[in-house]
């Protein structure tokens, strides 16, 4: 399941991998996280660094927070 994809409104590609982890691709490279909570924390860091991350990404991940 993809939470966001690279495009005009987003600088991040984030999805849940079938291997049981969250995968995030950004200007900071490729990262893997075990929980939605870790993923949200990283995406907040990326947003603070200037990356475009839509609000709906945080909302959707927060619903799955583990």
List the helices and strands and how they pair.
Blueprint (H helix, E strand, L loop, with lengths): L1 E3 L8 E5 L3 E6 L2 E5 L2 H13 L6 H9 L3
Antiparallel strand pairs: 1-2, 2-3, 3-4
Intertermini distance: 16 Å
Major beta sheet, specifics?
4 strands, antiparallel
**Percent range for helical residues?**
25-40%
Bin the strand percentage: 25-35%
> Average pLDDT across residues?
93
Spans of at least 5 consecutive residues whose pLDDT stays below 50 are none
How many β-strand runs? 4
Estimated radius of gyration: 11 Å
Strand arrangement within the widest β-sheet reads 1-2-3-4
Q: Which structural class fits the helix and strand makeup?
A: alpha+beta
Discrete helix count: 2
**Run of helices and strands:** EEEEHH
Describe this protein's structure.
With 66 residues, the chain is of the alpha+beta class. The protein has one domain. The protein contains 2 helices and 4 strands. The protein has helices at 36-48, 55-63; strands spanning 2-4, 13-17, 21-26, 29-33. It has a 4-stranded antiparallel sheet, with helices on one face. A hairpin with an 8-residue loop joins strand 1 (2-4) and strand 2 (13-17). The model has no long low-confidence stretch (mean pLDDT 93).
């Amino acid at each position: 399941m993809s939470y966001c994809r690279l495009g005009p409104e987003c600088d991040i590609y984030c999805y849940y991998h079938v291997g049981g982890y969250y995968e995030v691709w950004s200007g900071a490279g490729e990262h893997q996280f075990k929980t939605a909570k870790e993923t949200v924390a990283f995406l907040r860091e990326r947003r603070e660094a200037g990356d475009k991350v839509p609000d709906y990404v945080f909302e959707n991940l927060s619903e799955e927070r583990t």
